[in-house]
Amino acid sequence: MDKHINVPLDDSAVTSLVAGDYVYLTGIIYTARDAAHKRMYEALEKGEQLPLEMKDNVIYYMGPSPARTGRPIGSAGPTTASRMDKYAPALLDLGLKGMIGKGKRTKEVKEAVMRNGAVYFAAVGGAGALLSRSIISSQVIAYDDLGTEAIRRLEVKDFPVIVVMDAQGNDLYETAIRDYCRE
Fold first, then answer.
1. Can you tell me the distance from the alpha carbon of 181 to that of 159, in angstroms, rounded to the nearest whole number?
2. Dihedral sign, Cα of residue 43, residue 48, residue 50, residue 54
3. pLDDT value at position 183?
4. Paired strand residues for 100
5. For residue 46, what is the DSSP state?
6. Which residues are within 8 A (CB) of 20 and not within 5 positions of it... i.e. 6 or more apart?
7. Rama region for 27: left / alpha / beta (φ>0; ψ in -120 to 50; rest)
């Protein structure tokens, strides 16, 4: 089922989502990859403030290529989410409502998604140039020294994703395999 959702997310939007839904996100999301997650996790361990508010926000696991003239961002495809699995439960416990990446997640992330009423979306890998067309603006907000792994604030319009793991713990990577094997 296709759904158009505004971000940041609220509880009613998240609970309306079911694994397998096609979703078009409009609003503000943030990017962060491995190095930024590690730095945020270390800041939390030291009791320091994070560079962005987690509550109700969505983090896209992506590091863009350089922007072409006249464009806000270059190719913007997802990276493998499992590299952030060590850090994701702590951010979800701070109120992070959504993550966008590709690939399966650990049991600990799944438990944190359910515990916090969050959602994990997948973006299509290999379609970074196409995905970048849904990005209206891009601004580095933290960790500029990390280059492509800096944290960015993105304004998106109809950014296409698929619900892979919903707040009830339904996981499309698991159910799709079971459904395929039954046929």
1. 31
2. positive
3. 55
4. 60, 121
5. T
6. 1, 162, 163, 172, 175, 176
7. left
CA 88/CA 101 separation, integer angstroms? 12
Contact 50, 56 (CB under 8 A): no
User: What is d(CA 51, CA 80) in angstroms, rounded to the nearest whole number?
Assistant: 23
Per residue in 130-146, pLDDT (tens digit) is 899 999 999 999 999 99
Q: What is the dihedral of CA 14, 75, 127, 55, to 10 degrees?
A: -10
User: Which residues on neighbouring strands pair with residue 27, listed in sequence order?
Assistant: 7, 156
- Annotate 123-158 with three-state secondary structure: CCCCCHHHHHCCEEEEEEEECHHHHHHCEEEEEEEE
Q: Could you tell me if 19 and 170 are in contact, meaning their C-beta atoms sit under 8 angstroms apart?
A: yes
Question: Taking the chain, what is the end-to-end CA distance rounded to the nearest angstrom?
Answer: 22
Distance in angstroms (rounded) separating the CA atoms of residues 58 and 174: 23
Residues in the chain: 183
pLDDT recorded at residue 33: 96
CB atoms near residue 182 (< 10 Å): 6
Residue 5's φ and ψ, nearest 5 degrees, are -125, 140
Query: What does the pLDDT look like over 16-42, one tens digit per residue?
Result: 999 999 999 999 999 999 999 999 999
Count Cα atoms within 13 angstroms, Cβ side, for 104.
8
